[in-house]
Write a structure and sequence with these properties.
384 residues, 6 helices, DNA Polymerase III, Chain A, domain 2, 27 strands, 18% helix, alpha+beta, homodimer
Amino acid sequence: MKLTCTQSDLNSNLSLVSRAVPSRPTHPVLANVLLIADAENQCLELTGFDLSLGIRSNFPAVVETGGSFTLPAKLFNDIVSRLPDGNITIDDDEGEAIATLTSTSGRYEVRGMGGEEYPELPKVEEGEVIYLPPEALINGLKGTLFATSPDETKQVLTGVHLKVQKDGLEFAATDGHRLAIVKTESVAPDGESEVEEIEEFEVTIPAKALREIERMIGMDQSSEAVALRFDEGQVIFELGEQCLTSRKLDGQYPAYGQLLPDKFTNQINVDRKQFLGAVERIAVLADQKNNILKCSIDSVNQEISLSVDAQDVGSGRESMAAQISSDEPEEIAFNVKYLIEGLKAIPSASEISIQLNTATSPVVLNPLGGVKMTYLIMPVQLRN
Amino acid sequence: MKLTCTQSDLNSNLSLVSRAVPSRPTHPVLANVLLIADAENQCLELTGFDLSLGIRSNFPAVVETGGSFTLPAKLFNDIVSRLPDGNITIDDDEGEAIATLTSTSGRYEVRGMGGEEYPELPKVEEGEVIYLPPEALINGLKGTLFATSPDETKQVLTGVHLKVQKDGLEFAATDGHRLAIVKTESVAPDGESEVEEIEEFEVTIPAKALREIERMIGMDQSSEAVALRFDEGQVIFELGEQCLTSRKLDGQYPAYGQLLPDKFTNQINVDRKQFLGAVERIAVLADQKNNILKCSIDSVNQEISLSVDAQDVGSGRESMAAQISSDEPEEIAFNVKYLIEGLKAIPSASEISIQLNTATSPVVLNPLGGVKMTYLIMPVQLRN
């Protein structure tokens, strides 16, 4: 393998695929990135893989001799990121376990391993494929990822559940305490499959992989549709010259639709930023005690008040105007953390609606306009 | 005590003085900031103090009733920083251990302690005073602070040694492995003492206090001289409406002047950025082994080469043009960490000189032009 590419191409693609390299690899070669020099297409392909999440990226290179090799991801990254602008030549000296990096400033020899020792990235050859508009994907992820469970024992709850339906996409995430749902515009048809029927399906994808997809779309300048392929065990996202593979999360995702009440007896419309600001200030004191905030609903004065009483530390109270159509309850309590996270994730909308029935039944937040998001939280029951 | 001030004034001054509040206070009241409302001068004074370092700041406020009170620094800070723009009223309800904060958005009650429980900040009434131009102070600190020892048992080595001389200021710091010295322009005379003789003196000031001074000067827009007062045990810096007090470090500072060789048999002039870039790349591999970098001096080709050989990992070599007047040695070795820190701290100059005698005697780096800085490092002795 012998090739020449630019420092900036190598650096950006290397830092991208390195995000899939595990910090504690189960096998030494997984601490490396795989380099495949393709003489026919004159490009270099880099791969990072932790056996669950894989990232692959392709970019132009002048390939003199094709071949493959692996190099320690961190060391390779650390050297390349510090090299000056200009061309870098990589040569694995055929059969030696050493690659030579030559740049305008100097020459480095780095010990690696043969490409044949690196595991194959999973392929999906006979699965479904669907094309997702990047903006819909971003909105769906921003509105749900935060509500996934960080607890690895929680299985499907560590991922986002994606439903592809005829009339659009539905993203959902819940950690058992709150539930976030985003519905986005219809699935983008592929150029060639415009007339084909869209197959309905559901899949649960690990949050870790989706956070990387969110980053990759954020860095990508194009607005090209993202292809999502999947079969029994794997999903693959394709974005231009980059792809990300991930195992699917097995198991039945909770039937979250049943949790949403059919109707509500109370509705409060309030300015999102003003409400969030007040909750964040109240949270400073709530944090000193049990993280619980009380919300009083005054339909006569069309005003809501947030309050906290942290004995021995202090207390606080904020009030703001709201449009209230309500009879009861007059008081309801929340965990500030769940409220803050939901209010931050509700995108763009300046106003939100808070709908509820009793002080002990699910509360639903929706933005008024903008992205179609639903955020459900359970109130905290107060003992008197 | 009852007063009204703006959120932005309170917020910026509070975060400044909070930097002196200890995270693990030896006495409960030290976790608080002291507020003194001065009705006569219509201002609010805030103080944070850990018994060694103290920061005090003064700003305009509408004071209805003068008095003093203390509030928990972190909680107070967290609430104030989240309050909206506009006025904040603080009222300690005379005798109650609670202060009420009222802003446009809400009302908070925070438990505090009386001002009389807060220790007095040290005063220097009959000591020396000297006026330092802020730019000279900044240059001196940037060029030396990094070379102080972080090891609290190292006493005077945890501080910067400041010599005030007739012809200027000298800053010095050493941790026993390297030594940094900066000489700056002459001491700024005070408006009133222009004709007075400048008293020569020396003082060692804890790095922690000087890092705060560096920050305070950085945030200050004015170019007013900084007053430095000191007596037997304390130093006080005065910057406009702010002041910082610190204990001095006791003990004899090493006679570092003796460490600097009188003359050198070898001199190498090299581009600072190019040299630093190469050292940082070589450091990636040196970091895998013993942090040692070899430097070969080729006076025939007027070139220096940096190299590292980390067995089992890899090796690297960088060469660059240099102006060399040298016979011997041909090879010298350094700890990359000390080299990188020194090269980063040498300010503004595009070229540096490296002066040395043998491969085992002190090496001195100087910028060619700009700030007068001297950086001395001991080479590493290589066993063959």
